[in-house]
Amino acid sequence: MIDAIFTYEFLQNAFGAGLIIGVIAPLLGVFIVVRRLSLIADALSHVTLAGIAGSLYLSQSVVVFSALNPLFLGIAASVGGSVLIERLRTLYKHYEELAIPIILSAGIGFGAIFISLAQGFSNDLFGYLFGSVSAVSREDLLIVVAIAIVVLAFIVIFFKELFVLSFDDEYAKASGLPAKWIHFMFMIVTALVIAGSMRIVGILLVSSLMTIPVAAAMRVSKSFKQTITLSIIFGEASVIAGLISAFYFDLAPGGTIVVTSILLLLLVLIYKKIAVSVKRGAIA
Amino acid sequence: MEAPLIEIKDISFEYEETKALENISMKVEKGDFLAILGPNGSGKSTLLKIMLGLIKPTKGSIKLFGVDSKNFKHREWIGYVSQKSNSFNSGFPATVEEVVAGGLAKKAGLFRRLPKTVDEDVLDALKSVGMEAFLHRSISELSGGQQQRVFIARALVAKPKMLILDEPTVGIDHQNVQAFYDMLAALNREKEITLVMVTHDVDTVTDRISHVACLNQTIHFHGFKEQFQTLSDEERASWYGHSVRKIHHVGGAH
Prior knowledge:
CATH topology of chain B: Rossmann fold
Number of domains of chain B: 1
Keywords (chain B): ATP-binding, Nucleotide-binding, Transport
InterPro entries (chain B): AAA+_ATPase, ABC_transporter-like_ATP-bd, ABC_transporter-like_CS, Metal_Ion_Import_ABC, P-loop_NTPase
Helix content of chain A: over 70%
CATH class of chain A: Mainly Alpha
Low-confidence stretches of chain A: none
Low-confidence stretches of chain B: 245-254
CATH superfamily of chain A: ABC transporter involved in vitamin B12 uptake, BtuC
GO molecular function, one term (chain B): ATP binding
CATH superfamily of chain B: P-loop containing nucleotide triphosphate hydrolases
Helix content of chain B: 25-40%
Shape of chain B: globular
Structural class of chain B: alpha/beta
Pfam families (chain B): ABC_tran
Largest sheet of chain B: 6 strands, mixed
Largest interface: A-B, 30 and 36 residues
Strand order of the largest sheet of chain B: 6-7-8-3-9-10
Oligomer: heterodimer
Number of strands of chain B: 10
Order of helices and strands of chain A: HHHHHHHHHHHHHH
CATH architecture of chain A: Orthogonal Bundle
Mean pLDDT of chain B: 87
Protein name (chain B): Metal ABC transporter ATP-binding protein
Distance between the termini of chain A: 50 Å
Strand content of chain A: under 5%
Radius of gyration of chain B: 18 Å
Number of helices of chain B: 10
Order of helices and strands of chain B: EEEHEEEHHHHHEHEHEEHH
CATH topology of chain A: ABC transporter involved in vitamin B12 uptake, BtuC
């Protein structure tokens, strides 16, 4: 496997992008989960699908789009979707969750129309839906690197504000923190991570990499920082094991990565149950 | 003479065409321990939110530490303790230490790290609410009363000049409410922190406070607690909506 990575550029791209996504998706995922925004990731991934499908369709008839990486239109759609979600959440103050099904169905709706219009690109589309080891180009890798720099810079710079906002948003606003702006930037960054992750994990499974490692970490963590560390470890383990098995068994990496993360979650849940039983036994 | 910490002039607030507050004027001076009393829906929490700048009044003005609230820059001078059940995610994976350190975020400033003294500051704040032994415990493992003490420590860690508390005893069992108010009174007395608190516990709190404001859309009474205690049951009922009487607890100090 190591020899193959040194030999083939597509494997270098896939593993490079995968390792980076294994860090940034669970890192941002911790904030998404504790802020109870998990479904927003799903809505944005479907909006990204519309952007990708639109780009692939346009590339068949418009010269400019044939030279453009579909990821760019996917990113634009995802960021646009995040802005729209925020607008809708403000509009429906008492039913904020309504924004998610509205944007999610709009994404699927536009995606379905573009796919029908194109009457083709099923191979490309499969890669975008479930991820692909072979389809990650050097340009895709560079886009992922750029997104990772933005995400890491955002988290490092605004970590303390993000923590306060995630724990208690009313307190954050009362303290005079620019909660609205930080949340807005958070949504944009989330959109970027989703768009960047889908080449490896796929549009339909990208939100899983942001939530399942976090779900496992939260069961065994004692602190917020420990939750972040364990989420990244579980995320990385899922990506590495998932990519290797996808390569050897010729499977969609999105599936293998997510199934690995589910297995890790099950192991953590079993470990936690045993640990609690042992503790109770020791006390009794 | 030092400016009042809060000076409200002729404030009104309407929520979706329903009047929540009408022509409120009041001052909170340095060292006050003010309890804002009123029935449900009387606008108590709305008034606190206006004081904190979370919502803007439809009419009127508010000064904080002598400065118009729109131009007031020192939010870290005001600590806020909300109703625990309203805003806190009870399953949040964080330690007491992390939660209290979060209280320094505004004081540290954007693009800056927490101060190097963060560990000492957090420990000092926890000591002042008697929770130093819980430093490394998970916030979700604590009882309602313990969590509320931690939230007061979070408000205290930035060394505020004033604390604003919105029904802080919601979710605390009755036996611990008295001890909780004793702790607030000690903060007011020993650390000279001005306290503004919305509460329903009229009887329990009156021995610890210095001032009372009775609110039901508008201010019906604002003065020293001794004056409040001389009000007849009928006078209290006229603004509260039903009879409010001082109850003498068996074995209690009041």
